[in-house]
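Example record for the data management plan.
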Amino acid sequence: MVKPADKIATYQDLYNIPDSLVGEILGGELVTHHRPAPKHARAASVLGARLLSNFDTLPDGESGGWWILDEPECHLGKDIVVPDIAGWRKTTMAELPESAWFDICPDWVFEVISPATARHDRGVKRDIYARVGVGHYWIVDPIEKFIEVIELQNQHWVLLQTAFDSQVVGLSPFEKMSFDLSAIQR
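Corresponding structural encoding:
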């Protein structure tokens, strides 16, 4: 007999949480947190807009080589994660799915850490992303004002770059575009 504390979370458990919370299933556990604070939301919005206009939909209206999406629900094996932003190369996922979730592993994930999410973003979620083969993982801290760019190499994360404050940098896998990091901190 399974004790209540040992119960594996189900998709129905996600439906049962209040709308004011974000829910994920990480390692069989239902994990919830409040919607992002303004600095968190701003960092994700600014960066997402830049990537969308440079890699998803090009200025002339043509399609770029990526799908860039805010808060997609990703079903990665038994885990259900909701990254702040995720990207799929169109060679990985030619078309957007009809379902409300994605079961194709993203090529790139972006998480803005906060006191409520840092432990999961740097722990179990990072492990899940490595296990399923996410190629690049960015962690942004809008309070401490830095971004870490991590790449999956031989099934292990390798820190490629840490950028601070108002540096203008190219970040893998989007090196063709320079990011002014001060824009995500305003």
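Summary line stored alongside the record: The mean pLDDT is 87.
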